[in-house]
């Protein structure tokens, strides 16, 4: 077995706010392999963005834990080493393409600059690479658009330019935080297709953030479900969609447009991040909660299918942080309290 491309262990991110300490990420662990797409999903405020930004220490906060990438712990790297990692091996794509591009330079110049900084080429050769990248991300007549400025591109085309910019360093890991949320649906689908093609071509690992489970079903190989800075459930895309374990995951699925009943937002409000509840963070909103959910720590992530040795479902990584998966409860009892909703995933038809 080869080591994962990225291995996050017990990641903790704390902000000192005016109204107290915010534990935005509180003990998150996951692995990501090369060529794989891992989706972080969860309601607003669950810590998805902070997790992404913490990977290359982009957040002004206290960080703890381990972020193993390229044979070292990024939390131990010097600022100089990190800058190198950020520019080349790990590339970030954010929700709003506008913010990632400099309005006063042509897109070609910005790309060429990225290419020169990260690859061993300069001048005309770098320009050629930049044009190739524009072409590769689907900008029509790439050479002719080289000297255009960001405002001369539509939203979707701008996000393509941002992706080209991310690729300029030939990254091993692409961190894409809601990269299509600001775009309309047709463009969104095109960008998702593009990311998938690029990934297949280059074998990059993609950490993809979305609050939209429909998008996650399309792009993910594996899913990490977050709530209030904790991992509630983790597993392969079919395990998560076909047999979601945590009541929170199930509730998220019922919010999916076109699944089960009508739009059905999760009742109750997300927690106050400065004052999280004891026990399972989700228990105040959970229709299945029992006494044991109200105290102690968040339950450990436990194997969702102890009976299978990854033989039948093929998913040894599927695990759930819920007392019903512990020794004292029967998880069959969960089914009666929270109806399931099924959704088609890519993997279902093969
Ligand atoms: N710079 C900061 N200072 C203090 N608190 C912060 C800071 N950045 C984020 N937070 C808090 O950390 C928590 C997690 O935020 P995060 O942006 O990661 O959520 P998210 O899952 O990405 O949500 P969304 O779907 O809305 O993007 C929130 O409670 C947020 O208020
Ligand atoms: Ni976010």
TrEMBL record:
The ABC transporter domain, residue ranges: 8-253
Membrane topology: Peripheral membrane protein
Organism ancestry: Archaea, Methanobacteriati, Methanobacteriota, Stenosarchaea group, Halobacteria
Record-listed E.C. numbers: 7.2.2.11
Key words of the record: ATP-binding, Cell membrane, Ion transport, Membrane, Nucleotide-binding, Translocase, Transport
Protein name listed in UniProt: Nickel import system ATP-binding protein NikD
Localization of this protein: Cell membrane
InterPro entries: AAA+_ATPase (IPR003593), ABC_Ni/Peptide_Import (IPR050388), ABC_transporter-like_ATP-bd (IPR003439), ABC_transporter-like_CS (IPR017871), Oligopep_ABC_C (IPR013563), P-loop_NTPase (IPR027417)
Entry-linked NCBIfam families: oligo_HPY
Reaction catalyzed: Ni(2+)(out) + ATP + H2O = Ni(2+)(in) + ADP + phosphate + H(+)
Coarse class of the protein's main subcellular location: membrane
Tagged with keyword Membrane: yes
Pfam families reported for this sequence: ABC_tran, oligo_HPY
Gene Ontology CC terms, in alphabetical order: plasma membrane
GO MF terms held by the record: ABC-type nickel transporter activity; ATP binding
Subunit structure: The complex is composed of two ATP-binding proteins (NikD and NikE), two transmembrane proteins (NikB and NikC) and a solute-binding protein (NikA).
PANTHER family: NICKEL ABC TRANSPORTER, ATP-BINDING PROTEIN, OLIGOPEPTIDE TRANSPORT ATP-BINDING PROTEIN APPD
Region (Disordered): 293-314
């Amino acid at each position: 077995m080869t080591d994962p491309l990225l291995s996050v262990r017990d990641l903790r991110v704390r902000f000192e706010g005016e109204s107290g300490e915010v534990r935005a990420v509180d003990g998150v662990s996951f692995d990501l392999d090369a060529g794989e797409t891992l989706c972080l999903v969860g309601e607003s405020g669950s810590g998805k963005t902070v997790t992404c930004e913490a990977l290359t220490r982009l957040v002004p906060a206290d960080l703890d834990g381990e972020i193993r990438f390229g044979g070292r712990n990024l939390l131990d790297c010097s600022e100089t080493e990190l800058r190198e990692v950020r520019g080349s091996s790990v590339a970030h794509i954010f929700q709003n393409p506008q913010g990632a591009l400099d309005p006063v330079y042509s897109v070609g110049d910005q790309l060429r600059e990225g290419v020169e900084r990260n690859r061993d080429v300069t001048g005309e050769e770098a320009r050629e690479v930049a044009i190739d990248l524009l072409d590769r991300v689907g900008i029509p007549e790439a050479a002719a658009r080289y000297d255009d400025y960001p405002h001369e591109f539509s939203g979707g085309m701008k996000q393509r330019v941002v992706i080209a910019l991310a690729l300029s360093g030939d990254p091993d890991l692409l961190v894409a935080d809601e990269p299509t949320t600001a775009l309309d649906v047709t463009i969104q689908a095109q960008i998702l297709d593009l990311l998938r093609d690029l990934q297949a071509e280059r074998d990059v690992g993609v950490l993809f953030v979305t609050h939209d489970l429909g998008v996650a079903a399309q792009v993910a190989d594996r899913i990490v479900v977050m709530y209030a800075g904790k991992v509630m459930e983790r597993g392969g895309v079919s395990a998560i969609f076909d047999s979601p374990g945590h009541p929170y995951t199930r509730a998220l699925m019922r919010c999916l447009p076109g699944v089960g009943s009508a739009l059905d937002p999760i009742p109750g409000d997300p927690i106050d991040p400065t004052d999280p509840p004891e026990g399972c963070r989700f228990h105040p909103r959970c229709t299945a909660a029992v006494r044991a959910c109200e105290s102690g720590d968040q339950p450990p992530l436990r194997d969702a299918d102890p009976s299978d040795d990854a033989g039948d479902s093929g998913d040894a990584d599927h695990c759930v942080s819920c007392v019903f998966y512990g020794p004292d409860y029967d998880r069959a009892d969960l089914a009666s309290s929270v109806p399931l909703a099924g959704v088609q995933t890519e993997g279902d038809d093969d």
